[in-house]
Amino acid sequence: MHPFGTDRLGRDILARLIEGGKVSLSIGVGSALVASFIGLILGSVAGYFRGKIDKAFVVLVDLFLTFPTFFLLLALVSYVNASVWVLIVVISITGWMTTARLIRSESFKIGSQPYIKILDIAKVKKSKILLKYYAPILAPIFFVSFTFGVGGAILAESGLSFLGLGIVAPQMSWGTILSGGKDVIEIAWWVSFFPGLMIFLVTFSLINISNYLQTLTNKKEIKA
């Protein structure tokens, strides 16, 4: 039985979707986690220390945002042989800016609170202030950005693999399965349809989870 059909080589589509899903989700979760941590560290440091560090942060973010993200991905991948770890690094390098800007903005608000100024006057260690007072407040933004980033990373990997610049055989992802079905789309539509459906369902679910987490965060802020 092949509930999702087979490809032109007789391989079961469902089995390939399960195997490809491991790779796609690993890249999505891994790159979103790395990108969110980069954004958290850079954004909180820039928002807390301000001054020259914040100016350098703004220049760095503007530099990355100057280039369209997907074309920057294409440029980076074209110089290296793509693999799961390479794609995690490349996608995370191009995906940390939004999180960092949100974290920086929130860090400015936290830094203007009287108790933070008192802690600075008391010469409490800066690392302790960041970990004990900043981290709990910034955590909801981190998780929202992470959830949203997983969906974006899966889409980025799928786009690269579809163009032949992502995962290559013998490994597979939803993007490579989708790409493999484009040549037989007229006679075997299911080869491309089901991996595309999985990409849509996962990213749509993650976006809704992200929106739900953001709603909860906003409610807590209103109550506070």
Explained architecture:
The chain has helices spanning 13-49, 51-66, 69-77, 84-93, 97-111, 114-121, 126-162, 174-180, 190-223. It has one domain: MetI-like (MetI-like fold), CATH 1.10.3720. The protein contains nine helices and no strands. The chain is an all-alpha fold and 224 residues long.
Strand and helix layout:
Elements: H1 13-49, H2 51-66, H3 69-77, H4 84-93, H5 97-111, H6 114-121, H7 126-162, H8 174-180, H9 190-223
Helix pairs in contact: 1-2, 1-4, 1-5, 1-7, 1-8, 5-7, 7-8, 7-9, 8-9
Question: What can be said about this structure in brief?
Answer:
By secondary structure, the chain is an all-alpha fold. It has helices at 13-49, 51-66, 69-77, 84-93, 97-111, 114-121, 126-162, 174-180, 190-223.
Distance between the termini: 56 Å
Shape estimate: elongated
Percent strand: under 5%
Q: Specify the oligomeric state.
A: single chain
Which key phrases capture this entry?
77% helix; 224 residues; single chain; elongated; MetI-like fold; mainly alpha
